[in-house]
Design brief:
The chain contains 8 helices and 16 strands. The chain has about 290 residues and is of the alpha+beta class. The protein has 2 domains: about 110 residues, 2-Layer Sandwich (D-amino Acid Aminotransferase, Chain A, domain 1); about 160 residues, D-amino Acid Aminotransferase, subunit A, domain 2 (D-amino Acid Aminotransferase, Chain A, domain 2, Alpha-Beta Barrel). The structure holds 4'-deoxy-4'-aminopyridoxal-5'-phosphate. 4'-deoxy-4'-aminopyridoxal-5'-phosphate binds next to helix 6 and strand 13. The site of 4'-deoxy-4'-aminopyridoxal-5'-phosphate (PMP) has 15 residues, from helix 6 and strand 13.
């Protein structure tokens, strides 16, 4: 596998970063998870925009232009003969001293990995997920804003551990006020009375690109979509619930904390959005081979 590393393509065995890199020492950096479908990179410009927003929020000056990030991403796919896969784009603060001061880091490091995607097993899409609310509260936006896609994912990892320990694949994370924020790597939606509801960003959700696409698809189908604070009660009593994310795409949740959601199987609104989302991924995006 060829990895893009600081402007060069290197074999994965030689794709190495320093042990003094603050990305490793402190989780100081930003990243994106992107998908390629059918020879195109889906929503690439949106992912690069979000990377720039995350970098701005942590005062990290990205060493490449938007256009060069786009070029480097498609080139990484080409070098690995990828038509369908998962791309991880990472920018670390770079090698510095053992102290925290990020301004002592020489230069940010950029690497891009284009690999195969590991999806949830197919039966999860047919059956739907069983979710659990976990004790770890989503980061406060006044502390480490969940809108920043930073390399510091311990908050999510702790929640993921709690979900797995509780026998579930994915966790519902609440914010410090007890409102639903999101899952560990996905945004969350509910359907109630034919309308869609999803937590607003200030509740502690990432500005999910799949979330945005699904909101547009739903509105184009005539559904009302609202960003509103949700409690666990709202999840338990929803007609349908589903998650959205680049990796998981759109996937139903059919049980939360032992409460069966709706009919206990993926509902009609969710199923329609799953198929509309899949159709869109197959037919749009930045061409890898042009
Ligand atoms: N929330 C979190 C915490 C995430 O890490 C992700 C992406 N993996 C999402 C939501 C979904 O965002 P997107 O649709 O842009 O992949």
């Amino acid at each position: 596998m060829k990895i893009f590393l600081d402007g060069k393509f290197v074999d994965e065995r030689n794709a190495k970063v320093s042990v003094f890199d603050h990305g490793l020492l402190y989780g100081d950096g930003v990243f994106e998870g992107i998908r390629a479908y059918n020879g195109r990179v889906f929503k690439l410009a949106e992912h690069i925009d979000r990377l720039f927003y995350s970098a701005k929020a942590i005062l990290l000056k990205l060493p490449m232009s938007r256009a060069n990030f786009i070029k480097a991403t498609t080139e990484t796919c080409r070098r690995n003969n990828l038509r369908d896969g998962y791309i991880r784009l990472v920018v670390t603060r770079g090698a510095g001293t053992l102290g925290l001061n990020p301004f002592k880091c020489k230069a940010p490091s950029v690497f891009i990995i284009a690999d195969k995607i590991q999806l949830y097993p197919k039966e999860f899409y047919e059956r739907g997920l069983d979710l659990i609310t976990v004790p770890t509260v989503r980061n406060l936006h006044s502390a480490l804003n969940p809108a920043i896609k930073s390399l510091n994912y311990l908050n999510n990892i702790l929640a993921k551990i709690e979900a797995i320990n509780g026998g579930c694949e994915e966790a519902v994370m609440l914010n410090s006020e007890g409102f639903v924020a999101e899952c560990t790597g996905d945004n969350l939606f509910v359907v109630k009375g034919g309308q869609l509801f999803t937590p607003p960003l200030f509740a502690g959700a990432l500005y999910g690109i799949t979330r945005q696409v699904v909101m547009e698809l739903a509105r184009n189908s005539g559904l009302t979509v609202s960003e509103s604070n949700l409690t666990r009660y709202d999840l338990f009593n929803a007609d349908e619930c589903f998650l959205t994310g680049t990796g998981a795409e759109v996937i139903a949740a059919v049980k939360i904390d032992g409460r069966v959601i709706g009919g206990g199987h993926p509902g009609s609104v969710t199923k329609k959005l799953i198929s509309q989302y899949r159709a869109l991924t197959q037919s749009s995006g930045e061409p890898i081979y042009s």
